[in-house]
Amino acid sequence: MKALVYDGPGRRSWTEVPHPTILDPRDAIIRVDAVTICGTDLHILGGDVPEVRPGRVLGHEAVGTVVEVGDGVTDRSVGDRVLVSCISACGTCRYCREGSYGQCLGGGGWILGHTVDGVQAEYARVPFADLSTYRLPASVSDEAAVLLADILPTSYEVGVRNGQVAPGDTVVIVGAGPIGLAAILTAKLFSPAHIVVVDKAPSRLEAAKQFGADVTVAAEQDPLAVVRELTGGLGADVAIEAVGTPGTFELCATLVRPGGRVANVGVHGRPATLHLEDLWIRNVTITTGLVDTNTTPRLLDMLVAGQLDTGHLVTHRFPLAEIMRAYDVFASPAETGALKVLLSRS
């Protein structure tokens, strides 16, 4: 079969690899029906995630059909159409028992496309299949479902919930990529007074308006002046970092008010300066986190009920065999206008 393989920083290939097999009784093998590319995959290609070794099949967001299950799988059957979560959960360790699946001690956590082969392939092995996949109703399309594999639970849990967004808040989201746009959607569930989005790409600022941002600010403008004007000089109640660079993190710390919260979502490959000389007196809370995906069932229920409109997040669609071109498009959003790209089995 063919898969997208990481060949070292800056190098990738769509190439023949061995067909996956059951390695643990709790495994399932899925036929990949739809898959997408994540900003984290670009961080891997940029050398920001050194744990990923050359030869690894990338990808951690997919919808597929179960074609084989191990003897220890009890709640999934051949033929089931499932969402594959970006997080795998053993279900028995301390963190899994607390619902913190991202920190799994039993061989799970973020492993797909990271420490084991991922899902940007024709077939994939999914560890801990009972807990790490979700059976999908027929009413939910592959395109809508695949957005629940990572970006929606990540933006909701690591951004909106960690930031404790509340009614009447002023929320600033720095970065209008897919995670930032999903943060707009999920922050709106809590009725903030203002959602301000900062980005350097005009196309992404326009997308932020379509997703419900009240105010958009180009990065080269003065975001601090805009936020202070909205808040009577105080600053944002919540600042969500959705890029993963030192400058965007430090901007969030500047934009937040005394007593406010900075929720870091972005994947960082370089150190960022924590200006404690300014922050120590301001009662600011800073949170970090890897998504746990414990909210995926709730988000799926909201999607089925029509409470989450993800219809504009996918901007480009390709056959799976054109994944090399899809990477080029996704990696150049300023030129292509790409948000999420969807690759489907032909």
From TrEMBL:
<dbReference type="InterPro" id="IPR002328">
    <property type="entry name" value="ADH_Zn_CS"/>
</dbReference>
<keyword id="KW-0479">Metal-binding</keyword>
<protein>
    <submittedName>
        <fullName>Alcohol dehydrogenase</fullName>
    </submittedName>
</protein>
<dbReference type="InterPro" id="IPR036291">
    <property type="entry name" value="NAD(P)-bd_dom_sf"/>
</dbReference>
<dbReference type="Pfam" id="PF08240">
    <property type="entry name" value="ADH_N"/>
</dbReference>
<dbReference type="InterPro" id="IPR020843">
    <property type="entry name" value="ER"/>
</dbReference>
<dbReference type="InterPro" id="IPR013154">
    <property type="entry name" value="ADH-like_N"/>
</dbReference>
<dbReference type="InterPro" id="IPR011032">
    <property type="entry name" value="GroES-like_sf"/>
</dbReference>
<keyword id="KW-0862">Zinc</keyword>
<dbReference type="GO" id="GO:0008270">
    <property type="term" value="F:zinc ion binding"/>
</dbReference>
<dbReference type="InterPro" id="IPR013149">
    <property type="entry name" value="ADH-like_C"/>
</dbReference>
<keyword id="KW-0560">Oxidoreductase</keyword>
<comment type="similarity">
    <text>Belongs to the zinc-containing alcohol dehydrogenase family.</text>
</comment>
<dbReference type="GO" id="GO:0016491">
    <property type="term" value="F:oxidoreductase activity"/>
</dbReference>
<feature type="domain" description="Enoyl reductase (ER)">
    <location>
        <begin position="10"/>
        <end position="343"/>
    </location>
</feature>
<dbReference type="Pfam" id="PF00107">
    <property type="entry name" value="ADH_zinc_N"/>
</dbReference>
